[in-house]
Amino acid sequence: MDRRKALRNMGLSLGYVVATPTLLSLMQSCKQDAALVWTPDFLSKEEGTVLTTLVDIILPKTDTPSASEVQVHLFIDRFANEIMEKEQKDLFKMGMGKFMEKALADSEKKNIDNLTAEDLEPILAKALKTPKEDQAKHFKLISEYTEAIRENKTATLSDEVSRFSFANTLRGLTIWSYKTSEYVGENVLAYLPVPGEYIGCGDLQELTAGKAWSI
User: Fold this and answer.
1) Mean pLDDT value across the chain
2) What's the pLDDT band for 57 if we cut at 50, 70, 90?
3) 37, 60, 149, 171 — which has fewest CB within 10 A?
4) Given this model, what pLDDT does residue 13 score?
5) CA atoms within 13 A on the CB side of 156
6) What is residue 201's DSSP assignment?
7) Burial of 66 (C-beta count, 10 Å sphere; 0-12/13-18/19+)
């Protein structure tokens, strides 16, 4: 996987709108707590351990740090806790629960603490490799479910769709928060501290080697 190329070309496509001061505040708080023993704000301690493993499956250590090394797991937990709407929080929690239940059943383990990357990766891969025609159906069901819950109506999602929802959201949040980390912003993306030189018209390849600008 060419992570530099993937990060360079990927834009924000999660559908979340976050004010820059709020986003920067979350980033700074994660940086300050990096050296501490992490206690999740939104997830349980056991769920936090699974989250840490999952983000490193999505973005493992290569020529750049792994997702957890730049505190992606902290960011996602705090983003869910402070930014997501209640319906999004509940859907994320439910999907994660169904995901872990499947991992426990397939691995024949009893405790979440015992789940390893080898137990989690096949389930994540299957969810993320959902055929495009099925993805469209899943997104429609997720949208209808979320709208029903918002209107205080009774609604359900199948375990498969719940796991898909969680895996898809997690992948998007992992890549997004990795992109907004200090290390990636300064070392992978095009970085020019303010105030910088203004060039009104220039070739993108010459100016940034084709990289997206860091925030």
Assistant:
1) 80
2) very high
3) 37
4) 41
5) 3
6) S
7) middle
